[in-house]
Amino acid sequence: MSEPAGLSIRRVAELTGVAESTLRIWEQRHGFPSPARLPSGHRRYSETDVEAIRAVEADRRSGVPLRTAVERAREGAAEPEHSIFAGLRRRHPDLDPFLLSKRTLIGMSHAIEDECAVRAYRPVLFGAFQRERHFRAAEPRWRELAQRAGLAVVLADFPARREPEGALVEVPIEPADPVGREWSLVCEAADYSACLSAWEPPGQDDTADLERTFEAVWCVEAEVVRDCLRLALSLAERLAPELAERVAERLERPVPRHRNEMRLATALTSRMMAYVGAASTGPFPQAHRGVAEA
Question: Which of 97, 136, 147, 153 has its CA 20 to 30 A from that of 170?
Fold first, then answer.
C-alpha cells in the first residue's frame, strides 16, 4: 500500500528552517500547525502548512510574539492572498516601503533583470505588468530573458492564457483584481535572487505617466525572495492551474544560500543607481523601455 501524500516533519524542517522539536512544541502549546496523522501516528504536512510555518517564522524574526504570529498565519490560511505586495508585507513587516515614481521603478526593474541575465542559471522569473500594452513594450527583452529561464510567468490583462514560445507563459488577470494595481518582479536561481513589489495608490489619473508613484519594497535576501515567488506563483496557479506541476519541484528545493549576499546587493544597487541616474537626465534607452512597466 502506498503512503498517503504529504510531507514528513523532517522534510518540513528542511523546507522551513524550523527545527522538528520546535514544530512539536508549537503543535503542543498552540495547536499549530495541525498536520494529518498516518495510522502509525507519524505526521504529514501540506504545502499550506509549510507556507503558514514560514509566515510564523518570518514574523518571529521581526520581533512579533509567537502567539500573534500564529494567529496571523491562521488568518492568512483562511483567506488566500490576492495581492503579492500585501502578502509580502504581511510576511515580512520589517521591509520598509518607499514611495517611488514609475521612472525610478523602471530603472530598478531593469537592474534586477540585468543582474538576473548576468548571474542566474535557469532562474524562475515572474513579472506583474498590470496592462498588456506595457508588457508588449517589454516583450522583446522578456523573450530573451525567458530563453535562459526555467520558467518565466507574466501577469497582465491579456485576453487569454498564452505560451508563445519556450518558458514564457502569459497569464490573464482582471484589471479590477488587487494584482491589477501592482508591479512585481521576481528572479530566483541557485546563484542569484532578487524581488521588487509595488502597488499604485489610487487618485493618479491626471498624473503624467512616468511621474505616477508606487509604494515599493525590494530585497535580495533568499528567504524573502522565495516567499515573494511563492505568493506570485500561487496567484498565477489559481488563474492557470496547470502551472502547479511546473513549479512544484522548484518550490520544494531548499531556499538558495548565496555565498555573498552583500556583494550581490552592492552590485544590484550600483546598477540601479546607474539606471535611475541616467533616467533623471533623459528618457530610457529604447532597448530598455517598458520592462516591468505598470
Answer: 97
Q: Which residues contact 57 (CB under 8 A, 6 or more apart)?
A: 16, 17, 18
H/E stretch holding 153 reads strand 151-156
Cα first-last separation, the chain: 52
**Helices (DSSP H) in 65-157: which residue ranges?**
66-78, 84-91, 102-119, 132-147
In the structure grid, which three cell numbers stand for residue 219, read together? 530585497
Which pLDDT tens digit goes with each residue over 168-195? 999 999 888 889 999 999 999 988 899 9
Q: What is the pLDDT of residues 239-290, one digit of tens each?
A: 777 776 777 777 777 777 766 777 778 888 888 888 877 766 655 543 333 3
Contact 151, 251 (CB under 8 A): no
Does residue 123 have a cis peptide bond before it, meaning omega lies within 30 degrees of 0? no
Ordered by start, the domain boundaries in the chain are 9-79, 98-288
CATH of 9-79, one of 1.10.10.10, 2.40.160.20, 1.20.1300.10, 1.10.1660.10: 1.10.1660.10
